[in-house]
# Entry
Amino acid sequence: MAVRLGFVGTGGIANRHLGCAMKHPEMEIVGTCDIVKDLADEAAAKYGGTAYSDFVEMYDKESPDAIVICTPPFAHGDIEAEAAKRGIHIFVEKPVAISMEMAKGVLDSVRDAGIICQVGYMFRLSEPIKHVQQMLAERAIAMVQAHYYMPGMPNKGWWTKMDMGGGQLVEQATHMLDLGRFLAGDVKSVIGKTTQVRSWEPPAGYEEPEAGLVGYKDGFEIPDTTALILEYESGSLGTLSCSMIPQVAWDNGFKVVAEDCLVTIDSQNASWTNEDGEGSMDAGSNWADAVLTDFVNAVQTGGKNAVPYEEGVKSLALSLGGYLSVERGCVPVELAEILPDGL
Ligand SMILES: NC(=O)c1ccc[n+]([C@@H]2O[C@H](COP(=O)([O-])OP(=O)(O)OC[C@H]3O[C@@H](n4cnc5c(N)ncnc54)[C@H](O)[C@@H]3O)[C@@H](O)[C@H]2O)c1
# Structure
């Protein structure tokens, strides 16, 4: 039987998941919910289901098997807890929360309820990346060098606020931090440094583009450029550089230096040189849907899912640890200090 899905937060990224669900024979959209009711109405008209502005009402009226949460980093907690109470499985977009306190609360709810919870770190499901993860598994890894450069920033009010979006490390470069953990294992400590290299106040006469990224925003209060040094539990070292300075292109990826092996990851695609020569793999189209289909498959079969909530909590801790290091004057932060016991 198809899995009955409710959607909470039907802004930008929800459209990708709704589009995937609408076409998938094993998924049925039963509800769309957004505090901006017009957005829920639009999503219901385009993709199906009944529109709501209150997620509790949607849970109680539609009794979905699972929900897909696409709310901003600060808007989590009750959405997950109320679902867990009702035994509703959860797919939640990254980052899982704005703070460790919020993430720990949800972790407890998910564990108490015994529900399946998947985090939307879709790069982990790209076939090229799974392939290089296997290739690296038995090798000594020296360096995991990651970057995330974006030519401007998403035009969302919450993105520029530290207490709503969490800053680029939390909201976006989390993809790279999570993938670094997927490739090289858990991180022990992190050192961070941030800067703001230009003014983001809109100059006189600035007109926002109708779509896409923006180069200016009133009330900008997050660092625009960040560097981290990571020490993995294995002893490998890592770096992350990220910036949203308007340059000319999106660019995110990795170099991984390991014994007899050099891997390059360019977004979802990978290439490598190892003892057997050179190779490369392309993820093809629709690769980003795999993280939702994997979740729905786990709900149907009761099997394991690829990105459990615990992984989201660990990756969030790494972003928050980076900013904590900055606050403390660029000293190393041990992640054990901020992670829940046992993680
Ligand atoms: N995996 C990816 O590649 C990817 C890409 C983009 C965004 N994201 C993540 O998805 C999340 C949402 O991002 P977005 O770009 O879609 O943001 P958005 O602002 O476009 O949409 C979020 C929606 O949530 C709604 N909302 C807020 N609180 C709510 C509540 N309590 N109940 C119901 N609806 C509520 C808002 O009204 C808004 O429409 C963010 O955490 C972001 O990091 C992930």
